[in-house]
Amino acid sequence: MNQNLGLQHRTPEAANGDLSDDGLNPEQRRAVEAGDGPLLVLSGAGTGKTRVLTMRVAHLLATGRARSSELLVVTFTNKAAREMRSRVEALTGRALSGWWLGTFHSLGTRILRRHAQLVGLESDYAILDTDDQERVVKQVLGAANIDPKRWPPKKLLYSIDRWKNLGLTPERADVEGKAFASGRGLELYAAYQRRLRELNAADFGDLLLHNLTLFENDEILGEWQSRFRHILVDEYQDTNTAQHLWVRQLAAARGNVCAVGDEDQSIYGWRGAQVGNILSFQADFPAAEVIRLEQNYRSTGHILGAASSLIGCNRMRLGKTLWTQGSPGEPVRVRQAHDSEEEARLISDEIELLRRDGTSLDSMAVLVRTTALILGLEERFLQIGLPYQVVGGLRFFERQEIRDAVAYLRLVQHEHDDLAFERIIGRPRRGVGVATFRKLASEARQRETSVESAGRALLTAGRIHGTARAGLRELFHALDRWRERARDKKPHELAETVLEDSGYLKMLRHDTNADAAGRYENLQELLSALRDFEHLQGFLEHVALVHEHDGPTTESRVSLMTLHAAKGLEFDVVFLPAWEDGLFPHDLAVLEGGDEGLEEERRLAYVGLTRARHEARISWASRRRTYGNWEDRFPSQFLRELPAEHVSIETPPGTFGAPAYGATRFDTAGPVVDLGGTAVLPPANAPAQQFVEGQRVFHDKFGYGIVITSDDGAVDVQFDKSSRKTIMGDYLRPAEHA
User: Is 171 part of the annotated catalytic residue set?
Assistant: First the structure.
């Protein structure tokens, strides 16, 4: 194939596995050399997706099937686009110009600037960031006489962003937003769009939404369809509806569209991605050729066997089975810990042993479901001096909500802490603007005192007016109360009082941003951590010492990150803690998403397992401290879906019951529960509950549902707002008694 392509050098991947001399296995070669027409490349984890896409682009150019200006290549990040350009130019041996390579937004921007006037904009339109969008929404709410405190701008922006991701203009949007401002959501969406046009501006959602409007003009659509001879899209499983419609329209005339992706790695539904786009590709393009890349060059046989069995429980997939010519390796290890603190110790001890045996810290990672789980691991790593880095996010104590909470506590402890005062004065907002704070700071410099003392003096002198006066008075009264309570309250009790009284927790509870729930959860984890300290000063000193370790370093470090942040990465050894019912799959994802939410959680577990090259080590704890209280935990249903032949079980002595594998079971001590449900231990000596088919029941976690079957204490229930689960009858009660 090198002769046909005119490739300048062999790719490094050519040395992996039993490949032909050009570095492609038969399925990869089919994908690279496939003829015209729609092509769907289902590329499993570690099967060489990027190489295939890159070499297909090079092949199209080398064989004259397209000039560079006739290619439209879509990536999901600018970094991926840069890497794609570099690889293709290295393969072809020449610099390429004129080709359309970039993200959906960058490519949509180029098209929109050519026709901006047709959607009411000038070609030099501005692209607004999130802060600018919020200011525009506030203007719209003000013009409509709507109170932004009662109807937060972020909540309206969330609905607007959702509509744009679905490709819906105000005239076509659904009724979801009618609940906003007593049914005025769609009206405000239209007003927001008019205001953007007045400002000659667009937000990120508009960049594709306006394209879709332009494509309603047959002449314009025909122009762009004829321009692009071949369209190639990476990570197709992560496209939202607007992106899918955009690709479908541009490809409709020629049909030369190559979509590369893996439905089993679609994990971004919370930000608009629709796994249905890749699942329906053949329906949209009936003539599509489908090529499955299943030979894996990353992981061992046992890891692939466990991951394939797990993801095979999903129904929303096109199906493929990963395999490798490499070693079967070590079975996936599943470890049960007494509690979450022991789990952190076990992980850190195993990392130290691996490092002692020659495994680099850089080649190890700990992947967690939520950021709140990072704190316990960070604390342990800091305690023993284990170098680590948080990838794709901030360290726990660097997060805004944690810094805010610590600033409140610093101010309670030290009334002269001006930096802490400045940080918390507007979080949450209390009517004290920049001008007022500058006035306080200026007075403090003149008096050579703290900003707080200066503020108190100005209030007494009647020199602060309006909303700032009321806001400062309320804050100073609160500080007096908190400092008084600090004398006899435990640090975690004081912190909880401060966060509630200040309105900070309330602010997060009313925040509709996608990350608000995680930020709230992080604060609850902080409250849990505070229980380990007898005095507030000791905690503040601990935080200061944590930040002391934050300087730049070139030493090898273990990576600590969420499962979402790990996509696209790989490590020799991967630790997967907290595989517990309620944490993974996460309650919120299942309650809000039902069966689809559960399947996305399972895809997330699959992604976690397939990050490992040589070893995957899963753990769960019998007890975990949640919101300050120790709670009994139970193994994730995903553990019951792992095949016995690919898993090794390790249970520490003294635990309540060793996990036991059957053909398809992972059960705690007690009655066997079918894989479709959630295994829990019934209370000791509890009377057996009896339920019948069709009966309405209630569960404290999953709400109301209908009994499907009941057998020997295990009840199969279809819940109204969740998936179908098997629950021990002791944890259910008749709906009329709920």
Answer: no
Mean pLDDT, rounded, for 59-86: 90
Q: Exposure of 126 by Cβ count < 10 A (0-12 exposed, 13-18 middle, 19+ buried)?
A: middle
User: Does pLDDT of 15 surpass 50?
Assistant: no
pLDDT at 315 over 80: yes
Distances (CA, A) of 601 to 134, 642, 665: 31, 15, 19
Angle between helices 26-33 and 49-62 (to 10 degrees): 40
pLDDT digits (tens, 9 = 90+) for 19-56: 334 689 999 999 999 999 999 999 999 999 999 999 99
Separation between Cα atoms, residue 511 and residue 509, nearest integer Å = 6
Taking the C-alpha atoms of residue 176 and residue 504, their distance in angstroms, rounded to an integer, is 28
Q: Which residue has the higher pLDDT, 679 or 585?
A: 585
Confidence of residue 701 (pLDDT cuts 50, 70, 90): low
Looking at per-residue pLDDT, the higher value among 678 and 463 belongs to 463
| Residue of 29, 49, 317, 557 with catalytic role | 49
**Which domains are delineated in the chain?**
2-109+212-293 (3.40.50.300), 127-199 (1.10.10.160), 298-394+558-669 (3.40.50.300), 397-548 (1.10.486.10), 673-738 (2.30.30.140)
Q: Exposed/middle/buried for 457, CB within 10 Å: 0-12, 13-18, 19+?
A: middle
Per residue in 399-436, pLDDT (tens digit) is 888 889 988 988 888 887 788 888 888 888 888 877 88
Q: State yes or no: is 641 an active-site residue.
A: no
Identify whether the C-beta of residue 288 lies closer than 8 Å to the C-beta of residue 583: no
Q: Name the catalytic one among 234, 415, 418, 581.
A: 234
Q: Is 234 one of the catalytic residues?
A: yes
| Beta-bridge partner residues of 525 | none
**Other CB atoms within 10 Å distance of the CB of residue 686:** 11
Cα–Cα distance list, 697 to 50, 217, 652, 685 (Å): 49, 54, 37, 22
Query: Is 50 one of the catalytic residues?
Result: yes
Can you say whether residue 360 is alpha, beta or left, with left for phi > 0 and alpha for psi between -120 and 50 degrees?
Answer: beta
Mean pLDDT computed over 230-247: 96
Q: Active-site residue 349, yes or no?
A: no
Average of per-residue pLDDT across 217-223: 96
Backbone φ and ψ for 71, nearest 5 degrees, come out as -105, 135
- Establish whether 611 is a catalytic residue: yes
CB-based contacts of 719, cutoff 8 Å, min separation 6: 699, 702, 703, 704, 705, 725
Q: How many residues does this entry show for the chain? A: 738
Given the residues 456, 611, 624, 633, the one annotated as active site: 611
